[in-house]
TrEMBL record:
It comes from Bifidobacterium fermentum. It is a multi-pass membrane protein. It holds the Pfam family UPF0014. InterPro entries: UPF0014_fam (IPR005226). It is found in: Membrane. The keyword Nucleotide-binding does not apply. It comes from the Bacteria. One of its GO terms (cellular component) is plasma membrane. This is Iron export ABC transporter permease subunit FetB. Belongs to the UPF0014 family. The chain crosses the membrane at residues 16-36, 48-66, 72-90, 102-124, 130-155, 201-219, 231-253. Keywords: Membrane, Transmembrane, Transmembrane helix.
């Protein structure tokens, strides 16, 4: 049975049999979760099928956008990706108050502009400047990482503010500003959001070969060029995660206080 085809260019295409064997592997893993009574078999299978269809759909869409090579179509796709990222961020964050759509949207838009302005236009410098084969993957990788970091940071912040209720009231009674009272929770939230990114940055190339570099090498790309692209992406990820977490904390910490600077515990 043929699993993949080795074409003359050195690119190994994954055919339908390869995808089917991958799905069978997941089915076996799901069966193991049933034996162990973990209760996650259904969500595991559903997430796998959803991922397959979403990735294939995105592959067709990106192929179309690359063929059209139109800046307005690229901008429209990026906007859709940002709006979807906002919905996913809010759904992943636990125990957060309502009304955070605008702060999250502003954080993600600012992050996309920084990423596309610095990584794409100053480091990679594609021609034309809106080259969809550069802008869309870079934006997607940054958004994927930022969504998880912002969701984790927001959950930790509001949870920490609730547990520190009496401490915060003591801070305020002693004359501290709302920012000074919220600062320990802000620091804890930003640190928690950064830990996975920093760990991945430190272990790349030694413990693991990250996805982008592995994908380029498997697709027949030059390993050295793949390593340089991977380093740019990982370093940019750590920077954009820090900036995104700092921005979202700046935008949301005031939700815990009234205009007079009083703590609102019931809002969480």
């Amino acid at each position: 049975m043929k699993l993949a085809s080795n074409v003359a260019t050195g690119v190994y295409d994954i055919d339908i049999w390869g995808l089917l064997i991958t799905l069978i592997l997941v089915v076996l893993a799901a069966a193991l979760t049933v034996v162990m009574k973990l209760g996650i078999a259904k969500s595991m299978l559903w997430s796998t099928l959803r991922s397959l269809f979403q990735l294939l759909a995105m592959g067709y869409i990106i192929e179309y956008v690359i063929r059209m090579n139109n800046p307005w179509i690229v901008a429209a796709l990026l906007l859709v990706m940002v709006l979807a990222a906002v919905q996913i961020t809010l759904s992943r964050a636990d125990d957060i108050p309502h009304g955070l759509v605008f702060p999250v949207l502003l954080t993600l838009i600012a992050s996309v502009l920084i990423v596309d302005g610095v990584v794409s236009e100053l480091i990679i410098r594609p021609a034309p400047w809106f080259a969809p084969q550069i802008l869309i993957p870079v934006t997607g990788m940054m958004l994927g990482n930022l969504v998880a970091a912002v969701a984790v940071a927001m959950s930790r912040f509001f949870s920490d503010m609730t547990s520190r209720r009496y401490e915060i009231e003591v801070y305020l009674s002693l004359g501290a500003s709302p920012f000074e009272a919220a600062k320990p929770s802000i620091v804890a939230a930003v640190r928690l959001g950064l830990i996975p990114t920093i760990a991945q940055l430190a272990s790349s190339g030694v413990v693991l070969i990250p996805g982008m570099m592995a994908g380029q090498i498997m697709a027949g790309g030059n390993p050295l060029e793949a390593a340089k692209y991977q380093f740019v992406v990982l370093a940019a990820l750590s920077a954009i995660t820090m900036m995104g977490d700092a921005l979202i904390m700046t935008l949301i910490y005031t939700r815990c206080f009234t205009k007079a600077g009083q703590f609102i515990a019931d809002r969480m």
